[in-house]
Known about the structure:
CATH topology of the largest domain: Aminopeptidase
Low-confidence stretches: none
Mean pLDDT: 93
Number of domains: 2
Strand content: 25-35%
Shape: globular
Largest sheet: 12 strands, mixed
Strand order of the largest sheet: 1-2-3-4-5-12-6-11-10-9-8-7
CATH class of the largest domain: Alpha Beta
Helix content: 25-40%
Order of helices and strands: EHHEEEHEHEEHHEEEHEHE
CATH architecture of the largest domain: 3-Layer(aba) Sandwich
Amino acid sequence: MLTRIKESEIEKLEEALSADPVFNVRLSALVRAYGTGHPFFNVWRQEWDVVLARLESSFFIYAGENADFEEIAFFLQFNPYFRRLAGKSQILKQVTSFLGDGYELCDFDCMVYREKVKNQPAQCVIIDSEPDLKSVYEVMKSTESADFTVGEFMPWYADVSHRIRHGCARAYLLRVNSEPVSVCLVSAQSDGAGLISGVATKSNFRGRGYAAALTSKVCFDLKTCGKLPVLECLPFLADYYVRVGFEKIDTVTVIDIK
Length: 258
């Protein structure tokens, strides 16, 4: 039976999530950043074989082989906040078999950084590991597309700055002759992994290796701290990240309610 996790169970929760740091890095970071005392963030467990978390209208799931997927689907269907669910593809297939129709599905390649690839930018490049977040946001916003969107500044800033203060995220900004050009976020990090996202470069500076050099720097910093660099990308971007030094290990699925 799904039960709400209490603050006194946080240590046990973190222990359960640490068993699979690559796939649970987002969950681990959310727990560390928000605990269990916020109305917009909740965590449930099914024994300790399933962890289900809600951040506003997005749900994230980790499940073992003994999970009761029918109960999970029933719980989601009657939760008024439920609009999105993300997790390993094999887990999502089990859940959606009980959800019926009425949702859209999108797959992402889950990749980990395996080798050090030299991606050196020009000498005029400066990489800032503690940048002004407004500059980071402006670069990201300028690169929006159908596959990459950014919300309004204040909610984005409140969330990212909160995570950074609690050691659950990082932001990097690459400048060329002082102009903000390329950004990379570690949107979640735990003791064992760091989830890279929000890699973006202004359109008129693309094709010069800036994003690759910045991503390599982020991977180096994560590995120096004992964290495995992880990212989730749309399949058409996988070849690019392979050239940077990543390899695919699995698939992550996101379902959105229509």
